[in-house]
Every structure is written in structure tokens, then in C-alpha cells.
Amino acid sequence: MAAHRKYTRELLEEAVRHSTSVADVLRFLGLLQAGGTHAHVSRTIRAFDLDTTHFVRHQGGGQHRRLGPEHVFQVLPAGCTDAPPS
Total structural domains in the chain? Predict the structure, then answer.
């Protein structure tokens, strides 16, 4: 007996074809971008072995670098109870 699927292969094929990410697929399908929905659709795309090689990880161009601790943490003077201005 085949497993019940909420999304048909044809529907996901079309959504994937017109999208550049799983988030785009969710928007195409009119779904909320909640974690569980994203995970479910991702698993279903993989189960159907749909081609996602055209998906991009980051949009907007440029490199995305993590900030080092020297940019994130500040040492406050002893006795300071106020947060520094942001």
C-alpha cells in the first residue's frame, strides 16, 4: 500500500520548477513558512527525487561572513548594570 502524500508529485514538480528555494516552494503553494511545513515539504521533495540543483542557498549576492566574538561581545566595566547603547 502506497503512503498517503498531501502533495502530489506533479504539484511539487511545478512548484520546484518555478522556485529557487524551499521557501519559494512554500510561497508558491501558499503555505506558511513554519519550520514543520518547511521540513515536511523538503522531505517530500527528496522522496520524489525532484531536481533542486537550480536552488540557491543565499540570494542578494556577496559573501555572508559570521561576526567574530570581538564584534558581538563587549566587556562592561565592573559594577555596570546598564546595557550599552546599540
Answer: 1
Residues 6+ positions from 14 with CB-CB distance below 8 Å: 28
What are the pLDDT digits (tens) for 13-27? 999 999 999 999 999
pLDDT digits (tens, 9 = 90+) for 46-76: 999 999 999 887 656 555 566 777 777 777 7
Question: Do the beta carbons of residue 73 and residue 36 sit within 8 Å?
Answer: no
Is residue 66 assigned to a domain?
no
Residue at 15 is within a domain: yes
Cell numbers linked to 26: 512554500
Question: Which three cell numbers, joined as nine digits, stand for 71?
Answer: 564584534
Q: What is the largest CA-CA distance in the chain?
A: 68
Domain with 35, as residue range(s), is 9-48
The verdict on residue 34 lying in a domain is: yes
